[in-house]
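Researcher: Structure prediction, please.
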Amino acid sequence: MTAPMFDALDREPHILIVDDDDRIRELLKRYLAQGGARVSAAGDADAARRLIASFDFDVLIIDVMMPKEDGFSLAASVRAGSNVPIVLLTARGEPEDRIKGLTIGADDYVPKPFEPAELALRVNAILRRAASRKMDAAEEVRFGPFMFNMQRGELSR
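Model: Predicted structure follows.
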């Protein structure tokens, strides 16, 4: 991988991977890090919650089928208090599962098996949309000694 694959932000995105399968977690961690992301990983929902409480993430990639608490439940609870983008990753590819995932607030639903490159492209597209929404929502933008209030259309020093 020569060029960074994540170009949506002016910094490296911080991605959390939540999957109970060590091989998938490590594969994604390595692949996304090579593409220019900072990647954290958790093996279950409890570990993910601890990380989410400690760090700001730009995207969560959550496996649906995990022991104890499934990814649907984790995604729903995260969505209740946050707008962080969520990608559900799962072997459950039935239409009703995809509908359930999107209904609880996931931004995308990727069935296994998957191509890591496709997942990275989907994540980058989500990051672009999220960055665009943040720019739209920003009321004031500072640059140098100037501040521009977009809502009022005022530039001040």
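Model: The beta strands are 14-18, 38-42, 59-63, 86-90, 108-111, 140-143, 146-149, 154-156.
Researcher: Thanks, that helps.
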